What we know:
By secondary structure, this protein is an alpha/beta fold. The protein contains 10 helices and 11 strands. α6 (141-152) crosses α7 and α6 (141-152) crosses α10.
Amino acid sequence: MTAQLIDGKAIGLKVQDEVVTRVAEFTRLHGRAPGLDVVLVGDDPASQVYVRNKELTSKKVGMRGMLHRLPADTSQTTLLELVDRLNRDDLVDGILVQMPLPPHIDAETVIGTIDPLKDVDGLTPISAGLLALGRPGLVPCTPMGCMRLLAEVGCDPKGKRAVVIGRSVLVGKPIAQLLLARHATVTIAHSRTTDLGKVVAEGDIVIAAVGKEALVRGEWIKPGAVVIDVGINRGPDGKLHGDVEFEPAKARASWITPVPGGVGPMTIAMLLCNTLDAAKARITAR
Ligand code: NAP
């Protein structure tokens, strides 16, 4: 079997098109566009690219996108004051503070200050708690993107064995919870998991979210499995690679995401969906 590629770029654009229609409808009904405010502290080169993309894409779909750039030596107090101001600004529907923050700033404190109704990254304790309870709330964008990719290729997790490799708050844990909510039988593997190959081999769905190039060996993949590779690793060749050994895994899987062009484009598309959902939820809550 040779897997079909899951084209995250095309699916991400499709989601963006859906958002354009929904944003136009929101703007017509409420007399203003949904607003996404992104905060960047410092000049980390990768973060600069990410935030610029978020700002540009939100504008492209008709939202009010605003980027707040703060110098690397910004104090935690100043950052918290900005978050507080954005929390209270009625035109702001989504707040995203780009990680990583400089070491003198406590990320958990900053995230915990974001109004959960505007938490489009889904990282506040309230958002994480709602997800754990299976209640509606804002869910981290990358896991949402993975679920959309599965849906797009007709993979219903119900009754399937899903193996998630990685247990981060940003990716692994929320993906596992979303899969559980869709009635998969979920195993979460991590750095202390013994015999990872045996665990992975059980997965009808394999989600790799580690950050180690080719950690997941192609020969571990169960024939016919759907493989979603979240990992982004810069290889010695200067190119981006996933966590999964791509060619041998492709030879066994039914569907597989490429890196780049798989999960990456979905993250930003889902951020737009979250911003729109947050805008609607705040209006409904009034
Ligand atoms: P993270 O916070 O560093 O978490 C990595 C996870 O991998 C941890 O749970 C760790 O286990 C586990 N791990 C490490 N070594 C392992 C091993 N040998 N075997 C099994 N598990 C192992 O990373 P993250 O934020 O979740 O991101 C994971 C990857 O996804 C990174 O490459 C990141 O760049 C990428 N990413 C991509 C997108 C996108 O849009 N495509 C978005 C977010 C992240 P322990 O908990 O035991 O330490």
